[in-house]
Design goal:
The chain is an alpha+beta fold and about 120 residues long. The protein has three helices and six strands; from the N terminus they run H-H-E-E-H-E-E-E-E.
């Protein structure tokens, strides 16, 4: 139950990614099986209530240009962060948890894919 709702909080996602997102709703969720070591990956697809603005993309492009961010861009915009097991956690997250969080979306799409879990 907690896994399903772990990353549905917009403010938590903003804190981890460092960018402000419009409100969104979850349109699909799939939980993977937890393995014997406790590792798992969950997948969500979200839909933004408002279109991502050109200022939003400009912010991401500026961050990516610094090469000092967990954001990247190829065909999609992509954010990937892992923490725990000696790696620092984002502000507000627990460094003792071995977690990962990824989000990706195409420019001008109103949907994004999120995957997260324990590694």
């Amino acid at each position: 139950y907690q896994r399903k709702y772990q990353f549905r909080d917009k403010e938590r996602i903003e804190r981890i990614t460092g960018v402000e997102f419009p409100d969104f709703k979850v349109i699909s969720y799939k939980a993977e099986e937890r393995d014997i070591r406790g590792e798992y990956t969950d997948n969500m697809e979200i839909e933004f209530k408002d279109t991502l603005s050109s200022a939003f993309y400009h912010t991401l492009d500026s961050m990516i240009a610094t090469n000092e961010t967990d954001w990247s861009k190829s065909e999609n915009y992509y954010f990937s962060k892992i923490w725990g097991n000696g790696l620092p956690a984002p502000e507000g997250e627990d460094s003792e948890e071995d977690m990962f969080f990824n989000i990706s979306f195409k420019k001008n799409s109103n949907r994004a894919k999120i995957s997260y879990g324990v590694w």
